[in-house]
Amino acid sequence: xxxxxxxxxxxxxxxxxxxxxxxxxxxxxxxxxxxxxxxxxxxxxxxxxxxxxxxxxxxxxxxxxxxxxxxxxxxxxxxxxxxxxxxxxxxxxxxxxxxxxxxxxxxxxxxxxxxxxxxxxxxxxxxxxxxxxxxxxxxxxxxxxxxxxxxxxxxxxxxxxxxxx
Amino acid sequence: xxxxxxxxxxxxxxxxxxxxxxxxxxxxxxxxxxxxxxxxxxxxxxxxxxxxxxxxxxxxxxxxxxxxxxxxxxxxxxxxxxxxxxxxxxxxxxxxxxxxxxxxxxxxxxxxxxxxxxxxxxxxxxxxxxxxxxxxxxxxxxxxxxxxxxxxxxxxxxxxxxxxxxxxxxxxxxxxxxxxxxxxxxxxxxxxxxxxxxxxxxxxxxxxxxxxxxxxxxxxxxxxxxxxxxxxxxxxxxxxxxxxxxxxxxxxxxxxxxxxxxxxxxxxxx
Lengths: 165, 270
Hints:
The structure holds two protein chains of two kinds. Chain A is an alpha/beta fold.
């Protein structure tokens, strides 16, 4: 899901009075393209927000260097911030490595709601559906770079777990 | 070693990279990017035909990671050289003899045992190289290396487990692994062969120590791991002076494939 963020934004703000908090409030409603229950803020992707007279600059951290969703995220962020009426500059940086510690509690809950176990020590992974610890890792690699494949022996549900990095 | 960078050998222009530091840095970045690009492309040939579904997914993820690392390194190279080429132009618009990947990666995909042997030899050498760049004075590379090392941990876990599985197997899997190690062992050290301008890299704090020292440490660790698995240790590097310049027909075929879209339409993207 990459649409709909604009309509959820906080409405037109006079360009002279844009504050960083406005920008961050809008970003908190931009979802990770493949995980609609987690915002990019709760995923810990937002590194820096700068409101300048002639532009708004947002710096994001890629979860994985090769993440193919980066350009989608860049476009979604730019679209969402367009209501602020100022040129938007979205860039990616490796200034600090994104790590799974950057996920907020809301982000971890959002992952579970999407059927994805939040990142943790592989021995501590629990089923996002029934919370059982009786799980087995089927594959270190999953459908995206950031996830592994697991199977719950209690509710017999295959599920994905976010890789700790 | 100077002919290593001669324009007629490499068919690329380094005029944008002026002094010894920039020139050596550009070569380092390009050699690393080409390594990641070529192994990523070779591994991607397993997509759809991996030996089991989970391994199809795994090798495709590994290939995607390596291509992403290559892209990030090509971007840094493009910034350093600043001759107007972007990362895609550097990656796709060179003749096959202009690529600087290590000869280890010239062997092509091969069977699964060959893929595991090549990945294991490469990942261990690449990890030693990344370790020597962890505190590099070139800030954008230091940031990127920190990120890449976190991802490469998963690559090592995957390939270590597979090497052990094939080494411990009776019969054909072990025979195929031994054949692959015999074919690629003499080229394993090419990943860490000295680069032209290397003294400037060390002097400017870009590289922690000369490649010879990195290679010696990697070789001792690799030999130890091979011995523990009852596998033969690595032979000395064959033709170290052409470690990154003499490419195989296997690579020329791969090059024809990965440049096909760009060659059919200038500036094509997909």
